[in-house]
Amino acid sequence: MNKQIKDLNSDIISCRKCPRLVEWREKVAREKVKRYADQTYWGKPVPGFGDTDAKILIVGLAPAAHGANRTGRMFTGDRSGEWLYSALHKFGFANNSASISADDDLELSGVYITAVVRCAPPDNKPSREEIESCQPYLLAELKAFSNLKVIISPGKIAFDWTIDSLDKLGIVSFDNKPRFSHGAHIEVNDDLTLIASYHPSQQNTFTGKLTKPMFESVFKTAKEITK
């Protein structure tokens, strides 16, 4: 593993900077829900996961309370993850089409998955202050991945804060901030493309706002860019 990423993930796991998030993630881990009552929850900040020499970085919003906050792996154990890992497998970025637990045999190739916020927030809504508190971790990741060609941001909040992070690093500066829309391509520079996607949340997938072909088209494009 890339030593920078390994050290960063150790720092992430031990983080207790945001009192509201610490209280919530630990409360959820203690009280659980009935369907997972027999499981031990992770209940800590969730580190990134995947290939540390990745050309593609996926930046989500935050762990789900009974998904990654339970399993300890990004997009693992919830419906959003089912869509994500199925798409990754279809285009050759994952050896399996499902991510069930942090100790399964899933491996990613050319892809690393992270998030704007590393702790599960109440109602899936981190505050601006909590996002800003967590942002140094994303900044560090963006600097650590030297081979990046594509960043995929599922959801408007992740998209906006990815742009903000790229701006803070001096990688890009826009006169007019790009607007979020599904499938939007932003040429960050000659070597890096940002692709926006609707988040594969149940709110979007159950209503048909996001369909499988729409979601898979994002990864098809990423595959073509990174050939």
CATH architecture: 3-Layer(aba) Sandwich
Name the CATH homologous superfamily.
Uracil-DNA glycosylase-like domain
| DSSP strand tally | 6
Mean pLDDT across every amino acid position: 96
> How many strands, which pairing sense, and closed or not: the largest β-sheet?
6 strands, mixed
Helical fraction equals: 25-40%
* Total domain count: 1
Order of strands, widest sheet: 1-3-2-4-6-5
Stretches where pLDDT falls below 50 for ≥5 residues?
Answer: none
Share of β-strand residues: 5-15%
Count of individual helical segments: 8
Indicate the CATH topology: Uracil-DNA Glycosylase, subunit E
Explain the overall architecture:
- This protein has about 230 residues and is an alpha/beta fold.
- The protein has a single domain, classed as 3-Layer(aba) Sandwich (Uracil-DNA Glycosylase, subunit E), CATH 3.40.470.10.
- The chain contains 8 helices and 6 strands; from the N terminus they run H-H-E-E-H-H-E-H-E-H-E-E-H-H.
- A 6-stranded mixed sheet has the order 1-3-2-4-6-5.
- Helix 5 crosses helix 6.
- The longest helix has 17 residues.
Name the descriptors.
single chain; 8 helices; globular; 227 residues; alpha/beta; Uracil-DNA Glycosylase, subunit E
Short description:
This protein has 227 residues and is an alpha/beta fold.
Topology of this structure?
Elements: H1 3-13, H2 19-31, E1 49-50, E2 56-60, H3 68-71, H4 79-90, E3 111-115, H5 128-144, E4 150-154, H6 156-168, E5 185-189, E6 192-197, H7 202-205, H8 212-225
